[in-house]
Amino acid sequence: MKLSKVALIGLLFVAARTQAQDDAAPAADDSPVVSQYDASSTEADITTAIQNGSSDDQIITSLEEQGLSVPQAEVALAAAKDNYQSSSYDIATTTQENDDTTTADATQGEVAAAAAVDAGATEQQAAYIADAIDNEGASAASASIDAGLTNSQAVEVITEVVTASEDIPSQGEVAADAAADVGATDAQVEEIKDAIDSGASAASAALDAGLSDAQTAEVVDQVTSASDEIADPADVAAAAAIESGASSSQALEIATAVDNGDSAALAATEAGLEPAAVADVVSEVIDSAEKVSDPADVAAAAALDNGATASQAADVAESVDSGSSAAAAAADAGLDTAAVADIVDQVSSSSDNVAPPADVAAAAAIDAGASAEQVADIVTAVDAGASPSDAAVDAGLSPAAAAAVETQVEDSADNHAPAADVAAAAAADAGASPEQVADVAASVDAGASPSDAAADAGLSSSEISKVEGIIAEAATAVVSHDVNGIELAADHNMPDVYATYTNPPTHNETPAPKSTFGRIIDVITSYLTTAPSSPSLRARPQCATSA
Questions:
Q1: Which pLDDT belongs to residue 522?
Q2: CA 377 from chain center: how many Å?
Q3: How many other C-beta atoms lie within 10 A of the C-beta of residue 353?
Q4: By C-alpha distance, which of 401, 450, 397 is closest to 428?
Q5: CA-based angle 350:440:426, to the nearest 5?
Q6: Which residues form the signal peptide (predicted)?
Q7: How far apart are the first and last CA of the chain?
Q8: Tell me, what DSSP letter sits at residue 105?
């Protein structure tokens, strides 16, 4: 690999320092001399620290403790970081050019970096994108935009990432292959696949089929590893929009809106897409979300990552499957507070790829045979805080159809993290220590509100405010009635503005301008009433936890 200018300067500095010490000290003197091996070792240590998330200040302090001055430490850090970025770029380029390497072997960040290079991005931009996606959880869209790519370049990156993720098999297929690899019988393999396709977690399916804890741990690890490569909903929505004829700027507008918490339906409509295109975008987002791992499996895999035994991981999965928060399950299994905090973070983050209730409800209503007017009424009610079943009944659907809508939305919501884990992850994001994170989770599990739990754990007022903000955002992303313990949108806790949807002022006879939500309803109504036949999204196996 060709050395960059920064790396070359760093090595010259080390060489000059070594020569100066040789000239100043006699041969018998034991003054420290930085050899080429020492410099390489130091760079390796710095690279490891960067990969582990250490800050520049932490690394420089560590180098000072090893005898380097501040200027020397800064130069060494700059050289190591530059070589690390170049290495990331080389990996991305190799992934792109090596015919023997498939995208299935690369992370999303590596796929995105290769696509960025192909689109004309610099090596620094490609490295930034890879790091943001793989280490920060960013979507390909936001990573590309933040790296300074043009709209057309960003769209190329998004499209490549989503295309690669489409090759990811279903959870049932991944689990079946993993079970076979660890010695399960054909009958066990089939039982596991059928159970997962019917909504069970991989952990419960494997255990119920008679696999050992160690075998189950391997199955869970494979399933969650596959789920890690599912494209972000923002990227899926943007790619679907492009396929439906949207421009690059429209696609990025949609991606940004979804990244900020909007449903795909709202984002696509706001961007000006036609009714058919909006329906396609919603369908693609829901299809992708079905590959999201069950929280029980995510918790078990995270426990294994933190040193838990196979038996402990199985206990964690069973507890979460039974309704426990991941935090409580991990603590009960004997894991320390640092492990609990990391497990909570992973479980909470896994919920990011679950489809919004508005999108699920729209698709479920169409699947149940609802008319255009009924779909519009259901979406309006769910968005305003009603439960899917109440919304369906109020819209005039039969009990069976209402139950079908309720089931699909609830099954999707089952893949959201429990309330205690959301609160604990919010506390961690706000700056809480692992011990405080565990305390917050335990308090919420015991019935406390997230705000009270954060206060009791000793968080500052600013940190509590951050927790409240994160919880508020999380509440808008889950089904509107209490499924996982969070008090969600309802008549008693929603802003008065929602009353305008059901109680418009009678004194104003002039039609008010259409709201964004009203335009969404018009789009759905127009699309459904002009379709040549009753649209019906294909039936999909659910990936939710069994009740």
A1: 60
A2: 31
A3: 22
A4: 450
A5: 40
A6: 1-20
A7: 55
A8: G
Within 228-274, residue ranges assigned H as helices are: 233-243, 248-259, 264-270
In one-letter notation, the amino acid at residue 501 is Y
Per the domain annotation, does 76 fall within a domain? yes
**Position 10 in a domain:** yes
Record the tokens describing residue 430, joined without a space.
Answer: 């706000």
**Mean pLDDT of all residues in 334-341:** 90
Closest by CA to 477, choosing from 540, 538, 423, 416, is 416
Q: Render pLDDT for 214-242 as a digit per residue (tens, 0 to 9).
A: 999 999 998 888 877 788 889 999 999 99
Find the domain containing 14 and state its range.
5-87
3-state secondary structure 339-402: HHHHHHHHHHHHHHHCCCHHHHHHHHHHHCCCCHHHHHHHHHHHHCCCCHHHHHHHCCCCHHHH
Alpha-carbon dihedral angle through residues 53, 55, 59, 64, given to the nearest 10 degrees: -160
For residue 82, being part of any structural domain is answered with yes
Residues 413-470: tens digit of each pLDDT: 666 677 788 888 888 888 888 888 888 888 888 888 888 889 998 988 888 888 888 7
Measured distance CA(541)–CA(523) in Å, rounded: 28
Q: How does residue 484 score in pLDDT terms, banded at 50, 70 and 90?
A: very low
The answer, as to whether pTM is greater than 0.90, is: no
Per-residue pLDDT averaged across 19-34, rounded? 44
Instruction: Confirm whether 324 is domain-assigned.
Output: no
For residue 500, pLDDT beyond 70: no
- Quote helix, strand, coil % in the chain, to nearest 5: 70, 0, 30
CA distance 248 to 367: 31
Residue among 518, 513, 524, 489 nearest 361 (CA): 524
User: How many domains does the chain contain in total?
Assistant: 1
